Amino acid sequence: MTETALSGFCCADHSGASSVEAILSQAEALAKARGLRLTPVRRRTLEILLDAHGALGAYDVLERLAADGFGAQPPVAYRALNFLVDHGLAHRIRRLNAFTACAHPQHDHRAAFLICETCASVTEAAADEIGPALQKAADAAGFTLDRATIEAVGQCSACQEARA
Amino acid sequence: MTETALSGFCCADHSGASSVEAILSQAEALAKARGLRLTPVRRRTLEILLDAHGALGAYDVLERLAADGFGAQPPVAYRALNFLVDHGLAHRIRRLNAFTACAHPQHDHRAAFLICETCASVTEAAADEIGPALQKAADAAGFTLDRATIEAVGQCSACQEARA
DNA sequence: GTTAACTTGTTACTGTATAACATGCAAGGT
DNA sequence: ACCTTGCATGTTATACAGTAACAAGTTAAC
């Protein structure tokens, strides 16, 4: 993969350039509040994800980090990405082996991801109603739920229109 | 990973040895009905997944296939596994990079997977109620839903008791 | 019995992720 | 200020996961 643009806008309300700044400062505030260290690599990694407006593979992120003078080996990217994921600033999209910035870092939300098969865009959707249904299924199995990954595949609205 | 036993029982009602046979013959009937060819490698692959009573990595499956005289190269395992997944006889667990036999191959169900963090067992839970909730979230985004992956992480009932 | 479609097998390779260790930086204690 | 302790970064090397492309054998249909 060279410069794999798994692009696409995460959601309407933060596709403008200004909101990159907004989310970045939210992240900074959040890190301060929780005593986390949003170091240069970590901050830059988040910025890269936000700039991509979609999902990026770890090696794509690494390429950009290296171009900025950070380390050029996989662990550099994986560590920063895992940090962001662990603290809710980014999400891992397993179906794509990729990562995407969290659109709403401030609230602890359960998110579902809508992955377009045509343009590979990733949209983060509120999954508040899915939680209880999943909880019920877990209860029935005597399973204690910690967290869940919900990834849907289909066609985004833009691609449906283009195809019509 | 050498002989990584991502073991654990899929669900109470098919953890007996006899049901391996039962599911296998269900699969055979189903293949016949749909005009699919459940060839030796494919059948054996399904059997391997059923014997494992849980999720197995592709390379674990490959090892066992090779031991049985089938090809020893990755595509052999991946092709058989993908065939099973494509036809609903197995599921791919993305969080584990692994595969597991479908517990209920006959009905076209939406399944959620409950992955135990302690013993790595994978339970297939009915997710019928989750579908509508997800559909609603997709609708709100103007997204046309095709299929979805739902993977939950937590503690299975057996491990909770053991820890208590 | 020949063709066309599919299945299996192979080699070779690309992509994804982590282990283990060395170095460096930062915050708190004395 | 100085040291210590823990965390962050960077490196090398390697493990693990998945696929492309082609050759050979099988099956089913005509």
How is this structure best described in words?
Two copies of one chain form a homodimer. With 164 residues, chain A is of the alpha+beta class. Chain A has two domains: 12-101, Orthogonal Bundle (Arc Repressor Mutant, subunit A); 111-163, Ferric-uptake regulator, C-terminal dimerisarion domain (Dna Ligase, domain 1, 2-Layer Sandwich). In chain A, 44% of the residues lie in helices and 19% in strands. The first copy, chain A, contains six helices and five strands, in the order ααααββββαβα. Chain A has a three-stranded mixed beta sheet with strand order 4-3-5. The first copy, chain A, is globular, with a radius of gyration of 16 Å. Chains A and B meet through strand 3, strand 4, helix 5 and strand 5 of A and strand 3, strand 4, helix 5 and strand 5 of B. The structure holds a DNA duplex (30 and 30 nucleotides).
Q: Terminal Cα separation of chain A, in Å? A: 31 Å
The strand count of chain A comes to: 5
The CATH class assignment of the largest domain in chain A is Mainly Alpha
Report the sheet-strand fraction of chain A.
Answer: 15-25%
**The CATH architecture of the largest domain in chain A:** Orthogonal Bundle
Average pLDDT reading of chain A = 88
Rg of chain A, Å, rounded? 16 Å
Order of helix and strand elements from N to C terminus of chain A: HHHHEEEEHEH
Query: Structural class, judged by helices and strands of chain A?
Result: alpha+beta
- Bulk shape of chain A: globular
Low-confidence stretches of chain A are 1-14
Number of helices of chain A: 6
Report on the biggest sheet of chain A. 3 strands, mixed
Helix coverage percent of residues of chain A?
40-55%
Per the CATH scheme, the topology name of the largest domain in chain A is Arc Repressor Mutant, subunit A
Oligomer: homodimer
- Chain pair sharing the greatest interface: A-B, 37 and 38 residues
Strand order of the largest sheet of chain A: 4-3-5
CATH superfamily of the largest domain in chain A: Winged helix-like DNA-binding domain superfamily/Winged helix DNA-binding domain
Structurally, how many domains make up the residues of chain A? 2
